[in-house]
Amino acid sequence: MNFDLNEQQLEIQAKVRKFAEEELKPGVLERDEKCVFDMDLFRKAGELGLFGLPYPKEFGGQGLGYMEYAIAVEEVSKVDASFGIAFSVNTSLYGGSVWNFTASDEQKKQFMTAPLSGTVIGSFALTEPNAGSDAGGCITTAVKDGDEYILNGLKCFNTNGPLAKYTAVYALTEPEKKSKGLACFIVDRDLPGVRTGKIENKMGIRSAQVSEIIFENCRVPASCKITENGAGFKLAMKTLDCGRIGVASQALGIAEGAFEIAKNYMKEREQFGKPIAANQYLQFKMAELAVKIEAAKYIVYKAAMDHDNGRPFTQSAAKAKYIASATAMEVTEWAVQFMGGNGYMKEYHVERMIRDAKITQIYEGTNEIQKLIIGGALFR
């Protein structure tokens, strides 16, 4: 088994690292403070081909795989985890909803090309106020009326929601069947009857835009339905598996970014006449964190490779999200502690990173859900 990145992957890594350092980093504190997302930066990333990395060229992609995608999300998240999750949702949750099931080639070209190019952004609407971990509890409906479906309901915690041109909406065409009655629709947010509700004021990932989406007799053309009736739940679960690789990569990037900031600080910060890095206890703790980061990296990359090699990846994606998010939380907490009072201050970045890390243990399936997935498979 070769753990080295190939030449093309190293080139992508270097390109994305340069973009993150030169484009994302200068305004990251201000975007976090003001809770704003810069669509110009999103478009620049699109021009670099980042959002289409795992999809074929004929549908607006780069013809590569989830390994390259994971590397890219990891690199941007070292600097700006809010951008990392907007990237992940656009590519793996919105893009995956269109790609992963029965959408026709015509639908794929229609609904994927612009979001993968970065000219517009996509979002994923599954969660509802009473349907979080229990995704099958959705009550949003889609009633057939001639050549249209009429959507009514409310989706919440919709990342990219206020900015999205297209949203993958999971709604019941057969409410009596509950989760077995779900289908997926691509909804153009310019349609009458769909609007943005409350925009969330969040602890972390503050520049990522998260909101409610409200449907009130929204008429959607039947051609925008990308699954058969009843196939939506299966599509959502497969798409979330893909999204967990993105969140795991985001968490890995947060951990690596915070670790590097703390390491550099510890080499420069002097107390009692010597750099604090000379303290053996701190060296030991940094060694522990370095091992955990490397272990998380290989599990995240394993999940991406399972996806790309056509192997089942539900388990590996759950493991990757679980270990990477736990590592991100631990590393950022220690980074703040290592840096003392300065670590608590916004200009040193790790204060933001610890806030960003927490959500990686919650969204796209809480870590308790990941343990249910992993544990259930052990005894199946």
Residue windows where pLDDT falls under 50 for at least 5 positions: none
**What is the beta-strand fraction?**
15-25%
Q: Strand count, sense and closure of the main sheet? A: 4 strands, antiparallel
Which shape, going by the Cα principal axes? globular
CATH superfamily assignment of the largest domain? Butyryl-CoA Dehydrogenase, subunit A, domain 3
**Number of distinct helices:** 12
| Strand elements, count | 9
Helical fraction equals: 40-55%
The first-level CATH class name of the largest domain: Mainly Alpha
As laid out across the biggest beta sheet, the strand order is 2-3-7-6
Rounded to the nearest angstrom, the radius of gyration is 21 Å
The number of domains: 3
Fold-level CATH name of the largest domain:
Butyryl-CoA Dehydrogenase, subunit A, domain 3
User: Which class best fits the helix and strand makeup?
Assistant: alpha+beta
N-end to C-end Cα span:
28 Å
Return the CATH architecture of the largest domain: Up-down Bundle
Detailed description of the structure:
The protein has 380 residues and is α+β, with helices and mostly antiparallel strands. It folds into three domains: 7-120, Butyryl-Coa Dehydrogenase, subunit A, domain 1 (Orthogonal Bundle); 123-231, Butyryl-CoA Dehydrogenase, subunit A, domain 2; 233-378, Butyryl-CoA Dehydrogenase, subunit A, domain 3 (Up-down Bundle). The protein is built from twelve helices and nine strands. The protein has helices at 7-24, 28-34, 39-47, 66-77, 81-99, 105-117, 232-268, 280-308, 314-338, 340-343, 350-359, 367-378; strands at 122-125, 141-145, 148-159, 166-172, 182-188, 194-199, 210-221, 270-271, 274-275. It has a four-stranded antiparallel β-sheet with strand order 2-3-7-6, covered by helices on one side. The protein has a three-stranded mixed β-sheet with strand order 1-4-5, covered by helices on one side. Strands 8-9 form a two-stranded antiparallel sheet. Strand 8 (270-271) and strand 9 form a beta hairpin. Helix 4 (66-77) packs antiparallel against helix 8 (280-308) and helix 7 packs antiparallel against helix 8 (280-308). The longest helix is centred in the middle third of the chain and has 37 residues, at 232-268. The mean pLDDT is 96.
